Amino acid sequence: MGRIRRLPSDLANQIAAGEVVERPASIAKELLENALDAGALRINVAIELGGLGLVEVADDGLGMDPDDALLALERHATSKIQHVDDLARIGTFGFRGEALPSIASVSKLTLLTRDNAHDAATSVTLNGGGEPLVEPASRAVGTTVSVRALFWNVPARRKFLKSVSAESAAVGEVVLVAALARPDVAFHFLRDGKTARKHVQVASLGERVRDVLADDTLAQLEGASGAMRFRAWLSAPERARSGATGLFCFVNGRPVRDRHFTRAIQQAYGSVLEPGRYPTGAFFLDLPPEQVDVNVHPQKAEVRFADGRAIYDAVSRALHLPLAGAFNLPVGGPLFRRPAPGAPRSESPSTLSAPKDAWAFDAPRPATFAEPHGDPWGLSGPVPHPSNMETLDAAELGRLRPTLVSEEAAVESAPGTIRTIPPDAPLETPRVVIAVHGDLFDEGKGFYASLRYVGQVRRMFLLCEGPDGLYVLDQHAAAERVTFDRLRKAYGSGAVAMQPLLIPCIVQASPAEVAAAEVIEAEGSRMGLELGPHGPHAVAVRGVPAMLRNTNPEVLARDLLAEWMLEAQRPFADRIDMVFATMACHGSLRGGDAVTDGEARALLDSLDGIAFGGHCPHGRPVVTRLSFSELERRVGRP
């Protein structure tokens, strides 16, 4: 006999289980995805002992007949695809036909299922593979998969599992991720008989995101670039975390882990996010299926794009402008614009609605969920009368807090209420539609210009009065943002004025700093900076930007070199932003500096029209608000 033999099915299944079944959370994920593919509207997930004792997923989906129930436990048996060409347009979570037999090979599995065509259910039991035990049973239409005694026949695998609480938390996150993408499905997660998480069906994706992530401060953003469309709910820069664990990304409804993807989202924030810090929230990307390959990872946790670099760049570009506008004003700031005197008012508010199934998941969706309130994305609300709208551009975004909606929604809403880049714009041009729910304090003035300056507190904060509360500005953070914006704009136009130093400032430096100075020297003149090597162990500063003329050149040089080396992993343009952020920090009004009324007024006026005007270049909030109602409550006024 030859040396090559066909592996027994039980051995092949255990090998496959090594890739598919890593821990109880892996089982929960596979079973949840099967339930969603079956069109379930209600899914119950129950675990015991962190999933080692039991992982059970019950749904009200299509169910299976007796023959399909048996076939589903065989390797590479699936209803999701039939032909090779189907791999190029996968619209379901599962497609390999490996999950159930792999799980059954390392556990004691019971499959209980019934479809509409049969009065009785079918129960199939497998203990670590082998011959299945088939029995008639009773159940409503749908499927329940119970997985007990995980790894009972491969005890070595148990040693690699974490504590019961850690494994339970991992299963809980699987349920959380599934719930994020499917607002039309109700989820109930039980841990050792007690409810750990519960999500009812809701009418919009935004409502589900805010419910699941328990954060009402997330900015809602939406845009498109060519065939790419995205929706996102992202946190303000000051809520960013170290690492991307709080950022959930989805491609065509499928949760994915992709560091390039999360990096693109991080870079859309510009300098306000430090390296290694990421926003929290959820990001949903829709692409034509043929541009995404999901058949690259055993657990289907990764995808590959036909042109990954173009997608990442497009995501970063398309997100930047909406983010800049969304975080331009303080949280809790004004949301409405009063119409100009004498302007007609709309008798009835318009409703923004999206085309049906614009963001539909590829699995069957019930007819009862299709726009139950006429507004599946939760974007309904008053839209200004066309005569009250003004044309917006990037510079004017700083005056308003925008609500961002889709280009298709713009087509269906009242004419004149939304401005958008024309649909025939080049593919690389991000198309972002902005519907403004406005109400600034003074017509013709921006938000910051409308505040009444009261005075300086502790030579650190500027106290201002608005019609709805008190606004406290960090004077250094505010001045830093203005200086950064001026430097960046001047750099873009190639007109950063330089102040030559009468006597060059020589700074002792390490070899790495000297090497960094060589790189900066080539680009320095455009930044208004003349800095370069001065021998093998020093650098020379011969000129600084004119607006930073009072800065200590040695301190500036050291901080710039440190920033440049720290940002080595960023693209060149992003590193320049970080250099400008450092420059702005040195050349701006600082805490402890006295401020005249005129200087304070000029600073407030300058903040209007600046992207990310609500945050300094390093991400700290510029302003905080205390509403008059809160102030009255604190002093005991009725």
Structural description of this entry:
By secondary structure, this protein is of the alpha+beta class. The protein has three domains: 9-199, Histidine kinase-like ATPase, C-terminal domain (Heat Shock Protein 90, 2-Layer Sandwich); 202-341 and 349-439, 2-Layer Sandwich (Ribosomal Protein S5, domain 2); 444-638, formyl-coa transferase, domain 3, CATH 3.30.1540.20. Helix content is 29%, strand content 22%. The protein is built from 16 helices and 26 strands.
Largest sheet: 8 strands, mixed
Name the average pLDDT: 75
Q: Quick one: how many beta strands?
A: 26
CATH architectural name of the largest domain? 2-Layer Sandwich
Characteristic key phrases:
638 residues, alpha+beta, Heat Shock Protein 90, Ribosomal Protein S5, domain 2, formyl-coa transferase, domain 3, eight-stranded mixed sheet, 26 strands, 22% strand
What topology does this entry show?
Blueprint: H1 9-20, H2 24-37, E1 42-48, E2 54-59, H3 66-71, H4 99-105, E3 108-114, E4 121-127, E5 133-137, E6 142-148, H5 155-158, H6 164-181, E7 186-191, E8 194-199, H7 205-213, E9 219-225, E10 228-234, E11 241-242, E12 247-251, E13 254-256, H8 259-268, E14 277-278, E15 281-286, E16 292-293, E17 304-305, H9 308-326, E18 403-405, H10 407-412, E19 433-435, E20 452-457, E21 461-466, E22 469-474, H11 475-492, E23 498-508, H12 511-524, E24 530-533, E25 538-545, H13 553-566, H14 572-586, H15 597-607, E26 623-627, H16 628-634
Parallel strand pairs: 1-7, 12-15
Antiparallel strand pairs: 1-2, 2-6, 3-4, 3-6, 4-5, 7-8, 9-10, 10-15, 11-14, 12-13, 16-17, 18-19, 20-21, 21-22, 22-26, 23-25, 24-25
Helix pairs in contact: 1-4, 2-6, 6-7, 8-9, 11-14, 11-15, 12-13, 13-14
